[in-house]
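This is your field. Please look over both lines of this record.
***
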Amino acid sequence: MAVSPCDCDLFFRTVSTFHALVVGGFCLYILLYDDAVNADHLWGDPSIVQLNIAITTGYLISDLLLIIYYWRAIGDKFFVIHHLAALYAYYFVLSKGLLAYFGNFRLLAEFSTPFVNQRWFFEVLGYPKSSKANIINGVLMTVVFFMVRIAVIPMYYSRVISSFGSEGFQRLGFAAQSAWIISSVVLDIMNLMWMVKITKGCYKVICLVGQEEAKTHKNGKSD
């Protein structure tokens, strides 16, 4: 039985949202309560983090295969780059137990995913862009995306830089060091690009609502 593009995208978005809630919650728990990982950002005990990243790795691989197979319907080169960059870095966390803190820290970004997917659900259900539900979701999406993907950038890289030159950093080796830095930079460049796009979209919707309210007010006066 053939799967329609809409059904494929529905599955894609549903799994994506479920994955984001699971690993995002797990990520936050680790950052708050896993003393071993938080005490040593480079070589802290990775056992709990590896479980979380294993879930994400399985999701990324399955999602990547789905994107490739249904390329005409849901293909996006930026998602492919995003997934490959993440998998490249997560290999070292899973196979060698390195950089558990930083690998887990990146998963904070997943908290924005449910709002991004919800925008698609509203669109499929026929909600107008100026609807209250769409506006609330759009504003929340913009705020949460900024908080978990952009606002944390200075904190993330300050901890990256503070590790440079340390004994633990030297022990990582060039392969792990390059995978860590390159993947982080690539992912954050993409996050900045997406942030600009999301902000523009949110601004347009808010302006549209303002125009409609002004029009309604004007018509009310005319009557």
